[in-house]
Design goal:
Layout lengths: L3 E3 L4 H10 L1 E2 L3 E2 L5 E3 L2 E2 L3 H10 L5 E3 L3 H4 L20 H20 L4 H19 L11 H5 L6 H24 L4 H17 L17 H7 L2 H7 L9 H9 L16 H16 L8 H13 L4 H16 L11 H11 L7 H14 L11 E7 L5 E10 L18 E9 L1
Helix pairs in contact: 4-5, 4-7, 5-7, 5-8, 7-8, 7-14, 7-16, 8-11, 8-14, 10-11, 12-13, 14-15, 15-16
């Protein structure tokens, strides 16, 4: 036996073992005792035993390195997708530079029409550079890779990632569903992108906690940031009501009462807006903002406006956050970030947008790597007419480019198929 070397057990590595259905080498503890033996045809539970040992340290023999980390000259790309990288270094740099300058200005003052128009031009140029490529619908949305080289402040990194991911999802889901006129698609996409760019600007005016373990009071303070962001934009007449609503409600993609993780609540937000209407109507310098607040109150009552954009922005924001480092954790890989979003989506998003994210964007954000791969276990939820929900544990036996829906055994290979496990109701 050669030298023992620590093994960094990642989710991606476990998934790789599952797909190959093997444990490729012996794994040891620090004293050289074998914990897990090499095995062909390993089952999921046998592979997952590695997770039990990971907290205490897992080691491998350096002589086995080639078997554990084989060099691959070819990578299998899901049918119909392309490895063409759709975001250029220039686009990433220009987006980062514009966002950095805009956010620096917004720390000193609120948004004005000059900044709004400059942002529209920058976002329209980003749309043109992306949408005009032959592989726009099937290539790699490589913004995570590029932002690693930008050395941007955290809030700028998040905003650029969020905006590009939201753009890609908006473009691809609309083209996939109908033949929109290009200029109409561009106009709608720029509204979504502008909303994504601006939705967290209020955080620059807040002294947000920078560690884990927030108290209830600190969490309530953090959850004020959508309202703070909206108030920095409410006065700006050149900004659409849709953008302002998206900013105000981007953490509210589920309807009130759906039992999700959304905030702030309808009652809290409505009370705050009504109080601000009364306050600003009595202030001659701010009376012009009151109609904007009343318009947002009407949209809250309708509970219908711009639902799609709220889910797109919220999901894109979560992906951007998970793939960015923060003081209390490193950045997650793109694959792991998508898996974490899937784990929580039942309590966070309306059903359609996550499905379209998985079908049209997620794989290309992950360098065309599978996310719902064969051998992975998932929990499938189905809600009946009476509002009751049943959950079933399934093992995926097949997957390809379109990953959001189960298929029967006679379906074409465009979805995933699963082997049922156990189910429960709630």
């Amino acid at each position: 036996m050669g030298e023992l070397k620590p093994f960094d057990l990642s989710t991606e590595m476990i998934d790789q073992f599952r797909r190959a259905r093997e444990i490729p080498v012996h794994f040891y503890n620090r004293d050289g005792q074998i914990l897990i033996y090499r095995k062909q045809g390993a089952t999921g539970p046998e592979i997952e035993r590695l997770l039990r040992y990971a907290p205490h340290g897992i080691f491998y023999d350096v002589d086995d390195q080639a078997a554990l980390f084989p060099e691959s000259t070819e990578r299998t790309i899901p049918d119909g997708l392309s490895d063409a990288k759709l975001i250029s270094c220039e686009v990433a740099h220009e987006m980062t530079a514009h966002t950095s300058e805009l956010f620096a200005e917004l720390r000193r003052s609120s948004l004005d029409s000059k900044q709004t128009q400059a942002s529209r031009r920058r976002l329209a140029a980003t749309f043109d550079a992306f949408e005009g490529q032959p592989d726009a619908m099937i290539g790699l949305v490589n913004i995570i890779e590029l932002m690693g080289d930008q050395n941007a402040p955290h809030e700028v990194e998040l905003a650029v990632k969020r905006t590009v991911v939201a753009m890609a999802l908006k473009i691809r889901r609309m083209k996939a569903q109908s033949a929109f006129d290009r200029e109409q698609l561009k106009a709608l996409s720029v509204v979504t992108m502008l909303s994504a760019l601006l939705c967290d600007v209020g955080a620059s005016k807040m002294d947000l906690p920078k560690e884990l373990g927030l108290s209830n009071r600190e969490m309530q303070y953090v959850q004020n940031h959508p309202l703070m962001s909206f108030l920095m934009l409410a006065h700006e007449g050149s900004l659409e009501a849709a953008v302002k609503h998206n900013v105000l409600c981007h953490h509210r993609p589920l309807r009130e009462g759906a039992g999700g993780n959304n905030y702030p609540t309808d009652d809290w937000l409505s009370d705050r807006l009504r109080a601000l209407v009364t306050k600003y109507q009595a202030d001659a310098n701010r009376a012009g903002i009151a109609p904007d607040l009343e318009q947002q109150l009407a949209l809250l009552r309708s509970d219908q406006a711009y639902e799609e954009d709220l889910a797109i922005i919220s999901l894109s924001s979560e992906f951007a956050s998970l793939t960015s480092a923060v003081p209390w954790r490193p950045a997650f890989s793109s694959v792991r970030a998508v898996q974490m979003i899937i784990n929580n989506l039942f309590f966070t998003y309306p059903h359609r947008i996550p499905r379209e994210f998985l079908d049209y964007v997620a794989v290309s954000l992950c360098d065309n790597r599978e996310i719902l791969a064969a051998g992975v276990f998932i929990v499938v939820a189905a809600t009946g007419r009476e509002g009751d929900t049943a959950f079933e544990v399934c093992e995926i036996t097949h997957s390809s480019r379109y990953q959001s829906a189960p298929a029967s055994t006679d379906s074409p290979p465009s979805t995933w198929m699963s082997r049922p496990g156990r189910s429960c109701g709630s």
